[in-house]
Amino acid sequence: MSDVISLENLTVSYRRHPALHHVNGAFARGSLTAVVGPNGAGKSTLLKTMLGLVRCNGGRVVTHVDAHRIAYLPQQAEIDRSFPIKVLDCVLLGYWQAKGNWGGIDAKMAERARRALAAVGLDGFAGRPVSSLSVGQFQRVLFARILLQDAEVILLDEPFNAIDARTTGDLLRIISAWHAERRTVIAVLHDHDQVRRAFPQTLLLARNVVAWGDTADVMCEDNLLRARAMAEAVDEHADICEVSESEVLALSRLHDDHAGHAHAHPHQGHHHGAGEKGGLQ
Ligand SMILES: Nc1ncnc2c1ncn2[C@@H]1O[C@H](COP(=O)(O)OP(=O)(O)OP(=O)(O)O)[C@@H](O)[C@H]1O
C-alpha cells in the first residue's frame, strides 16, 4: 500500500519548546488511523503541521496528495461561529477549498449540499443560522461540508468532543463510509474504547512516537503507561533538541520495542519542512 503522508524526523517547537520530537512514520493511502496520547502530546500540532499551518523546526512532512484534496476539521473551540452565516452556505464552503473561489455555486451544487445535510441528519436545517445550532448539530454541519469537499485525506481533531452518543454513532458511520471509499482518515481521539472499536490503526504520541501500527498492538497497557510516563517526563523548559534524563530513560526502553511500528519510506511528492512555511495559512 502506498503512503499518502510521510513524516521524516519531524520536530516542531513553540517558542523553542518541542511539541513534536523526531517523529518518523507514514500514513498509508486509504488507512483509518486514530491519533491518541496524553494532553499536550502534540496531536493537534501534528495535524496542523501536516496541513502546513504550523512550521517544522526540523525534518519534514511529505504529502503525496494536492493540498486542496485534504479536508480539515479543527477542534470546535477553535471555530468562531458567531459569524452570520446560514447552514447551507456553511456547507457550501466545502466547494470553496476545492474550487478556490466564491463564485459559481449553481443549483446542482446547492442540491448536493442539501443532500449532504440530509446525509448527516439535518434535513430542513438549510436556512438556520449556524449560531443557533447545538454543538452536535454544528458538528454534523461540518461533516456535511467535508462530504462536499470530496477529499482524499480527512484530518479530524477531536471530532466527538462534547458530542452525545447518538450523534457520535452517526458521525462514526460517515467515517466508516469514507474509509470504505478508500479515503485516508486521521482522527485525534481521547476515547480509547472507541478507538479500539472503530479505528484499525493507531498512532500513540507523547511528543515522540510511542507506537504506531495495528490498534490492538499499539493500545496495550504497557504502551499507554509509557506514553503517560513520557508525557510526565517532559521538561517544559527544554530547548529544541534537548532531552531530559528521564526522557532518555523512557526513550531507551522504547527504542527496541517500537523500531518496527513506524515506517519511513523513500518517496516523491510535495513537502514542507524546516525553514519552509506551508501554503494553507
Ligand atoms: N500556539 C501555541 N503556542 C505555544 N505553545 C503551544 C501552541 N499550541 C500548542 N502549544 C503547546 O504545544 C504542546 C502540544 O500541544 P497540542 O495542542 O499539539 O497537544 P495535544 O496532544 O493536541 O493536546 P490535547 O489533548 O490537550 O488537545 C503543549 O505543550 C501546548 O501547550
UniProtKB/TrEMBL annotation:
Q: What SMART domains is this protein classified in?
A: AAA (SM00382)
- Domain ABC transporter, which positions? 5-232
Instruction: Give the start-end ranges of region Disordered.
Output: 259-281
In Swiss-Prot or TrEMBL terms, this protein is called Metal ABC transporter ATP-binding protein
Q: Which SUPFAM superfamilies match?
A: P-loop containing nucleoside triphosphate hydrolases
Q: Where is the composition biased (Basic residues)?
A: 261-272
Concerning its family, UniProt says: Belongs to the ABC transporter superfamily.
UniProt keyword Translocase, yes or no: no
Xref: InterPro entries: AAA+_ATPase, ABC_transporter-like_ATP-bd, ABC_transporter-like_CS, Metal_Ion_Import_ABC, P-loop_NTPase
The GO terms describing molecular function are: ATP binding
What keywords tag this UniProt record? ATP-binding, Cell membrane, Membrane, Nucleotide-binding, Transport
Record-linked Pfam families: ABC_tran
Organism name: Herbaspirillum robiniae
